[in-house]
User: Fold these one by one.
Assistant:
Number 1:
Amino acid sequence: MVKLDRIDEEFLKGRFGEAAAKAMEIIVTIAEALDAKQLIPIVSAHVSGISVSNIGEAGVLLIEELASGGGKVRVPAATVNPIGFDVYGLLPRTHEEWELQSRVIKALQEMGFRNILSCTPYDYGNRPTLGSHIAWAESSAVLYANSVLGAYTNREGGIVALAAALTGRIYEWGVHIKEERVPHVRLEISDSIDDELLGGLVGAFIGIHIEGIPLLKGSIAPDELLLRNLLAAAGAWGNHSLIYIPGVTPEYEKVRHSVTRSLSISKRDVLEVLDRVGGLTDEPDAIFIGCPHVHRNLVNRILEKIRECGGSRIPFYIATCGCIERQIVEQARKLNVMVLAGTCPVVSNLSRWGVKRLATNSMKAAFYLPRRHNVEVMLGNLHELVAAACSSKR
Ligand code: F3S
């Protein structure tokens, strides 16, 4: 049975309001189901699952109920994931759909969340430090937090991360416990992994074939885009929450000798994953970059490249934070580039964009787009995708 502190009991009794009591009930119910021993304080929360395309009206009402019940963020940093539409209205949406989505944003804001509308909270001030306990939903961000920042979080569901934000508490379970963070298998990669598509393929390979926590060994280029693609892919194609990466994961040196099982793979093994999806062998209808979201700096670099060739010949979508400036979005529009502020194709209504064949560099997008939106995906790295955008004959 979970041991509750006095503060936990006070939450349950309603001392901090109706919404906080409800949030604590959620945390305690799950703690009991998992047989967690106690609750622990957290310093950060990140909430996913707020796109109306996913949660519908029932989800909106639940979030509004927490706000009207006096729910308030009780952690130093609390941010939220992308929504179902871009904030500048480039994507098709009805008045009613936007109204519904706006109600979610308003309710979250009232509770004290920062509406960054991005899956890379670590780029926007929600960057927990080594060893801090946090409650994040959004698998790609969870993997980044554990594997790059050395923070401690399980893969929480959106509503649990929300409840954790309103109480400042989470159950001590899974990778919150040091002993549960010990790697299980050493994955020796014989060839160097040097671009983001290859990184994503390694991540997908891990998701498909590796059980337990992997510790990678080999030459993996210290490139942020590669790293994000690798981690996001492992989270999408599998259920991982932590991967030890040489030169990246802060606790790598401490734990690397504790692994007893080894597996060797080569570039050829990971390229087999590419066969499941398909390379850039044909002309796509459109191109998509930004799963996980790309930072403003990369948006600007891509725009620069596309400007050099006089604009993209096919629609080019880039997903990024809801905080990107309107001026960048408008400049991009002139180059046939749609900068999607605060959303992404996966959580949006992609089926209404009229796109059937989408080229991307993201193995996470390659997992979800065919399954959720029945879209054919073709893969290329950023360099190849920009070249395709500049030379398409469509
Ligand atoms: Fe982010 Fe959407 Fe991909 S939320 S990780 S861009 S599926």
Number 2:
Amino acid sequence: MSVKQVCKQGQLKHLLTMEGLKRPTLEQVFATADELSSAFSSGQCPPLLSGRTIINLFFEPSTRTRNSFELAAKRLSADILNVDLASSSTSKGESLLDTLWTLQAMHCDMFIVRHPESGAAHFIARHVDQGVAVLNAGDGRHAHPTQALLDLYTIRHHKPDFGGLRVVVVGDILHSRVARSLIHGLNIMNVGDLRLVAPPTLLPEQVEDLGAEVYHDLDKGLADADVVYMLRLQKERMVGAHLPDRHEYYKHFGLTSARLKLAKADAIVMHPGPMNRGVEIESSVADGPQSVILEQVGNGVSVRMAVMANILSGTTS
Ligand code: CP
């Protein structure tokens, strides 16, 4: 059974992946995020999710995603539950579906799921009751759609003409759900020029299908970039030797202030976090004037408010 994530008129039912989304749906999320961000800044956030129950179900660690979903839900007046999986019955061997159905029996409108296995969010979406939404907050190497939406939202704020942009994504593309979702998102937004820079061992098979130009030399890849997006080395997902060592990686693929000069003078630097300073990015760049890394984090709350409002506005509690 497949899972349909978009209803008629582009409204979201679930959000599991960026694949299959259309540009107007993304534009609608961005416009709602703009409105909700302004409303929050003026102290007038509407209680759009009052009476709704949202459950954060995180089977992997998270700082940014979990907390920004929680803040987003609270700002829209939802009830949000953070399930502590270490002290829940999953630690006594309860299956994923039994945990899910148990929580669903308490009445829940939306599950926000992070899981180490690719496909876990789709699996859960196939097994929840009709009317319960599932948001993928990162599954294995597969997808992290709200990260892609907040990244695109941040780019749009600084450089709204996607068609005229050169975006360079650097690092561990092979293991990165962030990269996969961002690449899909940039293609949906018809980005002008997309470059992927990585050692051959950190690129997926059939990388040519991703609609990007591939570079193994960071200096060449950075030339005249408008957006430089650095990825974290996903040591926890590496099986076997993908890299000589971290020092060697930094020498060839680390973003230093000297290297950043190869990009356009007004290029922005992005990173999804958590960062490995001195491995993929120099601290002076991460904290420097071209960095929008903390802006990405702040935008995550607005974009997640917009996504939850989009989904739950089409359902009844
Ligand atoms: N970017 C991101 O997913 O960060 P967390 O793992 O802290 O949620």
